[in-house]
Write a structure and sequence with these properties.
With 360 residues, the protein is of the alpha/beta class. The protein has helices at 11-16, 18-24, 30-50, 62-65, 75-84, 96-105, 128-137, 151-155, 166-177, 188-195, 217-226, 240-245, 252-262, 273-282, 303-312, 321-335, 348-351, and strands at 52-57, 71-73, 89-93, 110-112, 143-146, 159-161, 181-185, 201-204, 231-234, 248-249, 266-270, 287-289, 358-359. Strands 6-5-7-8-13 form a five-stranded parallel beta sheet, sandwiched between helices. It binds 1,3-dihydroxyacetonephosphate and iron/sulfur cluster.
């Protein structure tokens, strides 16, 4: 850690963090814990003093997720919590677009991100000018934008979506605009996967998640051969042929819910690696198989830089007020929709049909 003397694993720290250790001891080694626990204790104390909350995404490592996260979940859940929070400070344990979303929803709060370099390949795949060009080419069609985008892109948007509500949002936008096609940006694979569950036509962009695009249908077939009883859950940012081989597809919160309610004996989560580590803390009877991939952006967030963020009050995330106001309309429209009642479930029979999307 830079600039901070390492606090000791004192009996007081041990007492303060005992309940967390009990939870994570199957995923964190005792040696690691002696390093993590003093920071967890410090972070939780400073949070109380500063009236701060930590919003932690499902891809955070277990010591962050279970140790210091006040609200944990998927992109939709964290956005909802940001909108509800009455804390003075929000520390986003996630990536930059998530911190911007929090700032857009809470312009009067101080929003901090522990590492400004925590980006996203989807967010950097498209600019506001690209969206304006798409609108010019397809006048009259609503623009549905995945939250994995910059504030500037959201400002050019009619309504946002996440992987938890993408089908619901696409159908809602088509109904409201009275059209049978929508522009859906920037994730090509999410767009293709949504197109398989709706009759609404989709015009998509060529953005990809660098973590999920690496999974292949062959990966799933190999897992099934080696572990015939394993249940395969995939994130909708994966290529459609991967979802077609899976038993279930949904947002990170939906995967979490699936494992905790259905208690599979063996499961593989086709997504970022920390997801399985975090669910495994509560899903004690489930065996988690590999493969998984690491998101280099999510992994920039550590206990060390969360502590630094709180102590040094950095790095503040700001959004130009004019941009923020326009972006907020699109994010708020999404938040105002009823929460998805059951986890998004892909109709895999329909998923086998080829549904084309128009790619720009
Ligand atoms: P969700 O948590 O919304 O499923 O998103 C996954 C993701 O990749 C966020 O960056
Ligand atoms: Fe972006 Fe993919 Fe990383 Fe999520 S997992 S932050 S979509 S690069």
């Amino acid at each position: 850690m830079t600039g901070f003397p390492q606090a000791d694993f004192t009996p007081e720290v041990e007492r303060e963090t005992a309940a967390i250790w009990e939870k994570v001891s199957r995923r964190v080694t005792p040696i690691e814990w002696r390093l993590h626990a003093p920071m967890i204790a410090q972070i939780n104390r400073i949070k109380r003093e500063r009236n701060a909350v930590i919003l932690a995404h499902n891809y955070m490592t277990p010591e962050i997720f279970h140790g210091v996260g006040d609200y944990v979940g998927d992109s939709l859940g964290l956005a909802r919590e940001a909108a509800r929070s009455d804390a003075a400070v929000i520390v986003q344990a996630g990536v930059h677009f998530m911190a911007e979303t929090s700032k857009i929803l809470c312009p009067d709060k101080r929003v901090l991100i522990p590492d400004l370099r925590a980006g996203c390949s989807l967010a950097s795949s498209i600019t506001a000018a690209d969206v304006r060009l798409m609108r010019e080419r397809h006048p009259g069609l609503p623009v549905v934008t995945y939250v994995n985008t910059s504030a500037e892109v959201k400002a050019e948007t009619d309504i946002c979506c996440t992987s938890a509500n993408a089908v619901q949002v696409v159908e809602q936008a088509a109904r409201e605009w009275g059209v049978d096609r929508v522009i859906m940006i920037p994730d090509e694979f999410l767009a293709r996967n949504v197109a398989r569950q709706t009759d609404i036509g989709i015009i998509a962009w060529r953005g990809r998640c660098e973590v999920h695009e690496q999974f292949t249908a062959e990966d799933i077939r190999e897992i099934r051969e080696a572990h015939p009883g394993a249940e395969v859950l995939a994130h909708p940012e994966c290529p459609p042929e991967v979802l077609a081989e899976a038993d279930f597809a949904g947002s990170t919160a939906a995967m979490n819910d699936y494992v905790l309610t259905r208690k599979p004996r063996q499961v593989v989560l086709i997504t970022e690696c920390s997801m399985a580590d975090n669910v495994a803390v509560d899903a004690v009877d489930t065996e988690f198989l590999r493969p998984c991939n690491l998101c280099p952006h999510m992994k920039r967030i550590t206990l060390e830089n969360i502590l630094e963020a709180l102590v040094e009050d950095r790095y503040e995330v700001t959004v130009d007020p004019k941009v923020s106001l326009r972006a907020r309309t699109a994010v708020q429209r999404m938040i105002d929709l009823p929460p998805p009642a059951v986890p998004a479930r892909y109709d895999l029979v329909r998923a086998l049909h080829h549904v084309d999307v128009e790619l720009i």
